[in-house]
Amino acid sequence: MQLFQTAFTLLGAGLVSAHVSLISPCVRYTPYCTSCPELPSGQSLDYSINSPIGTHESTSQPLCKYTTPYATPAVTWKAGSTVEVKFREHAAVHGGGHCQFALSYDGGESFVVIHDELRYCFTGGPSSSNKAAQLSYSIALPQDLPSGDRVVFAWAWNNNQGNREFYMNCADVAIEGSGSSFTGPKLLVANYGPDSPFIPEFNGNYDTGIDLFNSRPMITVSGSGGYSGGGMAANSTGGAYSGDQQSSYDSVASTAAPTLPDTSSNYGPTSSAPASYEAPSSAPPAAYSGSAAGASDYAASAAPVYRARVASIPASPAPAKCK
Questions:
Q1: Are the C-beta atoms of residues 28 and 169 closer than 8 Å to each other?
Q2: N or C of the chain: less Cβ packing under 10 Å?
Q3: Angle at Cα 93 formed by Cα 263 and Cα 70, nearest 5°?
Q4: Dihedral sign of CA atoms 287, 231, 262, 103 in order
Q5: How far is Cα 293 from Cα 80, in angstroms, rounded to an integer?
Q6: Where are the beta strands (DSSP E) in 15-74?
Q7: Beta strands 264-266 and 165-176: pairing type?
Q8: Bridge partners, residue 307, by sequence
Q9: Contact 275, 220 (CB under 8 A)
């Protein structure tokens, strides 16, 4: 009997440590961080926080995993600063894949992407390993983010190999900013129910799914909680994503296949960023210039490809350590 109990305990520990979860900032209901706000009434810690919220066949949890926020923010960030996000060491990274980092000003109804780690998230290069080479990322917050004390910070991941899964964790944060609105790509929700876009296993082709990321529609979010633009909103029951429109960032037409020299990008539009977008055409979209602080160069062939060129930005204070 004791042997059975020991084996069951080890099996449970293995299940808990599989996959990936964010620990800094503290995400909703993680048991692996001691700096989290108090749990909302009626909620409990999630010892399977590392697990996906759905596959291409079905969904198991809503976007963010949990929709009831903490009563107070886990951390306060300043617009224009650089923040460090960290993942739990007990991780199985399935050969890397595509990660997005995004913000919501309307309680998780819509998410605008502020940073991408495409192709090699967690691995830093081509890999078939479950072992992570990188479990933290520095993210430059756009200078013109609006203020908000009920902002939702999200990490989303589509894995390279294995089951076609979608992972997402969310943290409740406060942002001190001076902008009235912010425009950027809409979060791509793929492999989350049969009605969502499908990203197959990479099988050595790390451009797999890049076309979906390059065609994300642009949305504008405001500090008052509203948003505009985009296509059909992805919802918490496996809703569809409309990727049939392109951004108006710097683009150049080319017959060459799209390439991403850098695997990360930060988005930092200023008031000159377009609040609208147009369907793809043979003519390149209008030019766009990024902000002076945290500026990004954008270029594309056939569809926009984003390349970070981030200036020196002051760092925000690091949150309390998690385990």
A1: yes
A2: N
A3: 90
A4: positive
A5: 7
A6: 22-24, 54-55
A7: unpaired
A8: 297
A9: yes
Beta bridge partners of 228: 220
Task: For residue range 191-227, list pLDDT tens digits in order.
Answer: 999 999 999 999 999 999 999 999 999 999 998 876 7
pTM equals 0.70
Q: Which residue, chain included where needed, has tokens 């107070």?
A: 72
Cα–Cα dist 111/106, whole Å: 9
Joined together, the tokens standing for residue 222 give: 């405001």
Model confidence at 164, pLDDT cuts 50, 70, 90, reads: very high
Separation CA 294–CA 317 (nearest Å): 18
Question: What stretches of the chain adopt beta strand conformation (E)?
Answer: 22-24, 54-55, 75-78, 82-87, 97-104, 112-117, 136-140, 148-159, 165-176, 181-185, 218-222, 227-229, 264-266, 296-301, 303-308
Place of tokens 């992407």: 113
One-letter amino acid of 156: A
Copy the structure tokens of residue 322.
């998690």
Mean pLDDT over residues 46-59, rounded?
Answer: 94
Amino acid at 204: G
Question: 322: pLDDT confidence band, cut at 50, 70 and 90?
Answer: low
